[in-house]
Design goal:
With 541 residues, the protein is an alpha/beta fold. Helices cover 38% and strands 21% of the residues. Helix 13 crosses helix 14. The chain is elongated. This is Peptidase M60 domain-containing protein.
Length: 541
């Protein structure tokens, strides 16, 4: 904008003095502090007041300084003081020097505030501006401060967390369709991103792992992999209890423009919300999508109320779905989406042998072209249960490809090969699972390519790398849960051997104890009842 242009402020035209210049910048949400309340998502954090200091950099002369701040509107009351900034940044404070700093006008607007200042000095000197904001209660955004933690093997910066938290608010605040209710809620980071305790594994593979993670304070917890959420699963990207006294959810890193959806979806579970399948664009729909931003009135109220003061069961993949989720006719469309808590069994199992042939074409002939969805492809193949898929899946697990998505899919194949064996009775599949669950030397050999690639990835990202032993143990654990899901007496016997064996490694033995319970359920009640029982949080004796 030139110095002589006119700025339209509502119905009033204000001429900017010829001697002033304009700057526009963004508020740094992580530095904004509520005037009242502690760093917990309590009702007093409804956003009636904020304080904030902005570093406008070195300036002199007259300036129109435009601060973009989504929480502000024309009815906001904004009080501003300016001064010369001390060396060391905004936290070092301001001081009174020889230059005079003057605020002439303060004008709140929709999405920000503009001020006219004058720095009477001949050269550029630091300008800090302090903002005190009071919003009318009926237009305020409720603010939820969220602690963010990450595993030492997962890269996640403060800036990454701020972007994702900002996206959470943007998803809820919009009302871009008749079915969508604008929800005045925003999420801000409570302190720097922290490291999770050292006892939390990079891959969450058992119920004990998940409980340890959720008991490690409150907030968002980011790990390398999640393979247990209400039960074992190979394609899980987020997990949270339905009802939680505080913000408490687990997730993995994901596509940048969809991480905010995963976090806000799991926060919805914390607030007591189940999955919803009557609107493909619903935030609480069980899969992710860039257009999943719709909340209805009841969901909006739950998001605003925040986490429930009770703790419920984990939202497993097939819960609340059943026949309500009608899978697309083309199985390739079904697997070309990410299901937050994993592929829903009751939907995937509706496909048949011809659909399995289509997926095998992708898996065997075009794996690199469909690498992003390999975990979904192999899981659906296993839920279909055609014996045609057994040898191709064994070959897939044994191949030397070592990318992150490929390794994730290999775990999915091992876990859910148990489902395939359960349906087909394949002896080859059962023997393969027993072999890998009981021989960690073989799983370490299979993990060598991934360990090499993971070490290089970690060096570039500046995070810790998993050891070969860790990766080998993870494969053995996945095979152990595959045995449990097979429902076969030989599998149950192998699991008992792992529990009793003096040479069984600790992670595998711990998994075997949980797998034994699943194996008993499978043998006594069958596959369909097992997946139905997950939805109800039901445990059999």
């Amino acid at each position: 904008m030139s110095n002589n242009q006119i700025v339209d402020a509502g119905t009033m035209n204000v001429a900017i003095p010829a001697s002033s210049t304009e700057i526009r910048q963004q508020v740094r949400q992580a530095l904004v502090r509520p005037l009242f309340g502690a760093a917990q998502p309590q009702p007093e954090l409804s956003g009636t007041g904020f304080t904030y200091r902005h570093d406008w950099g070195p300036l002199h002369g007259q300036w129109i300084l435009r601060l973009d701040w989504p929480d502000l509107g024309p009815r906001s009351q904004v009080f501003v003081s300016v001064g010369e900034g001390a060396a060391g940044g905004p936290d070092a404070g301001k001081f009174v020097g020889s230059a005079r700093y003057t605020v002439h006008n303060v004008a709140p607007r929709a999405g920000g505030v503009d001020i006219w200042v004058n720095i009477e000095w001949e050269s550029d000197i630091p300008l800090y501006a302090d903002y005190l904001v009071v919003n009318p209660a009926d237009v305020s955004l409720r603010t939820v401060q969220v602690t963010v933690q990450r595993h030492s093997s997962v890269p996640l910066s403060d800036a990454d967390a701020d972007r994702i938290l900002g996206d959470m608010g943007t998803i809820l605040q919009s009302d871009d369709s008749a079915a969508d209710v604008a929800t005045p809620l925003r999420f801000v980071r409570n302190g720097p991103v922290q490291l999770l305790p050292a006892n939390i594994p990079a891959a969450i593979q058992t119920e004990a792992d998940l409980l340890a993670l959720l008991n490690a304070g409150s907030g968002v917890k980011i790990v390398d992999a999640i393979r247990w959420c209400g039960g074992p699963g190979g394609s899980i990207i987020g997990c949270a209890p339905v009802g939680s006294p505080t913000v408490n959810l687990a997730a993995v890193r994901f596509t940048e423009n969809q991480e905010g959806l995963i976090w806000v979806h799991e926060y919805g579970h914390n607030a007591g919300l189940p999955h919803r399948t009557d609107d493909l664009r619903a935030v609480m729909y069980p899969s992710v999508g860039t257009d999943h931003n719709v909340v209805n009135a009841a969901e909006s109220a739950s998001f605003l109320a925040g986490p429930l003061a009770v703790t419920g069961e984990f939202m497993a993949s097939s819960c609340e779905l059943g026949m309500a989720l009608q899978p697309p006719r083309d199985v390739r469309e079904f697997v070309s989406q990410h299901w937050i808590a994993g592929i829903p069994y009751e939907a995937a199992s509706q496909y048949g042998e011809q659909d399995a042939r289509l997926l095998l074409e992708w898996l065997v002939k075009e794996p690199e072209q469909h690498e992003e969805f390999l975990a979904e492809i192999v899981t659906t193949l296993c839920f279909i249960g055609s014996e045609l898929a057994v040898q191709p899946l064994i070959d897939f697990v044994q191949n030397g490809r070592a990318g992150r998505a490929m390794f994730r899919a290999k775990h999915a194949a091992l876990i859910h090969m148990g489902d395939l064996v359960n349906k087909s009775g394949s002896q080859a599949g059962l023997a393969f699972l027993i072999d890998l669950a009981t021989d960690t030397d073989k799983t370490r050999t299979l993990a060598i390519p991934r360990a090499t690639v993971a070490a290089a990835e970690a060096a570039v990202a500046g995070v810790s790398a998993p050891t070969l032993e860790m990766l080998g143990n993870e494969l053995a654990v996945s095979a152990t849960f595959g045995l449990a899901l097979s429902g076969k007496p030989e599998a149950e016997q192998a699991i008992q051997g792992l529990m009793a064996g003096t040479a069984t490694l600790a992670p595998v033995k711990a998994a075997a104890a949980e797998a034994a319970e699943i194996a008993r359920t499978m043998r006594a009640h069958g596959q369909k009842e097992y997946y139905r029982s997950k939805c109800a949080g039901k445990r059999y004796p």
